[in-house]
Amino acid sequence: MSAIKEITSVESWEEHVASLPPSTLLIVSFHAPWAAPCAQMANVLSTLASEYPVSEPPSTSWVSINAEELPDISEAYNVTAVPFLVLIRGGKVLETVSGSSAVKVRNAIESHASKTGVVATADTGAAVTTGNAGGEIETEDPEKKKEELFKRLGDLVKAAPVMLFMKGTPSEPKCGFSRQLVGILRENAVKYGFFNILADDEVRQGLKEFADWPTYPQLWVNGELVGGLDIVKEELSNDPDFLKPFSVKANGDVSAAAS
């Protein structure tokens, strides 16, 4: 049965990709150790991998990558949040799935794994699956869809003790307010998770209602909304140690400081 291989360096990644024939479906799982949904997704993928026998040439190849430790690979596949799945065949991205929906992940893998031996010639842009493995059009109840979105948002805001929902990424902010908030977190040596809301309009629009806060960036601490840039500045003005519990300098291991 197939197993998941952990990729720990760019060289290892390049060697692995080069070793695969064009017909192999490469299933890449991006994760981060601080994100609880990633542990759940690891179990889902391990179970799925066990359903695919090892063959020669391999019909599937399963790898896992720490998105933070290998940022060059993460950026190459536009990974803005974890867990994040990328399906590749013949060097072309067939589909991506962001989030921890086991159903979406299974459907995406099964729909492409069934095409083993055929190099995809469709649009190579990344796209999140919206249908099911049988190709039937899904009609979702609006309330159910909203409930599922809010559950996803509830998981996202708790993905790290400190979560920043921003425009762009810390290395390339897309607005001045996001840039300033990133600067504040860096000045205070805070280790934090982030989500690029420009990469997911569903999250961008849904979080406004979920948080009852209409603008970005948004800073969340232990699953609770702090607010935007002005509120964070105000909190620090009133209490300079506001972010100290999450400081790497103060705690050595930020994950141990926030429960």
Detail the topology: elements first, then pairings.
Elements: E1 4-7, H1 10-19, E2 25-31, H2 36-49, E3 60-66, H3 71-76, E4 84-89, E5 92-98, H4 102-113, H5 142-156, E6 162-166, E7 168-169, E8 172-173, H6 176-187, E9 193-196, H7 201-211, E10 218-221, E11 224-227, H8 229-238, H9 248-251, H10 254-257
Parallel strand pairs: 1-3, 2-3, 6-9
Antiparallel strand pairs: 2-4, 4-5, 6-10, 7-8, 10-11
Helix pairs in contact: 5-7
Could you explain how this protein is built, in words?
InterPro entries: Glutaredoxin, GRX_PICOT-like, Monothiol_GRX-rel, Thioredoxin-like_sf, Thioredoxin_domain. Keywords: Iron, Iron-sulfur, Metal-binding. One of its GO terms (cellular component) is nucleus. Belongs to the glutaredoxin family. Monothiol subfamily. It comes from Canariomyces notabilis. Helix 5 crosses helix 7. This protein folds into 2 domains: 4-113, 3-Layer(aba) Sandwich (Glutaredoxin); 142-257, Glutaredoxin (3-Layer(aba) Sandwich). It has helices spanning 10-19, 36-49, 71-76, 102-113, 142-156, 176-187, 201-211, 229-238, 248-251, 254-257; strands at 4-7, 25-31, 60-66, 84-89, 92-98, 162-166, 168-169, 172-173, 193-196, 218-221, 224-227. With 259 residues, it is an alpha/beta fold. It has 10 helices and 11 strands. It is globular. The protein starts with a strand and ends with a helix. The strands form 3 sheets. Strands 1-3-2-4-5 form a 5-stranded mixed sheet. Strands 9-6-10-11 form a 4-stranded mixed sheet. A two-stranded antiparallel ribbon has the order 7-8. A hairpin with a 2-residue loop joins strand 10 (218-221) and strand 11 (224-227).
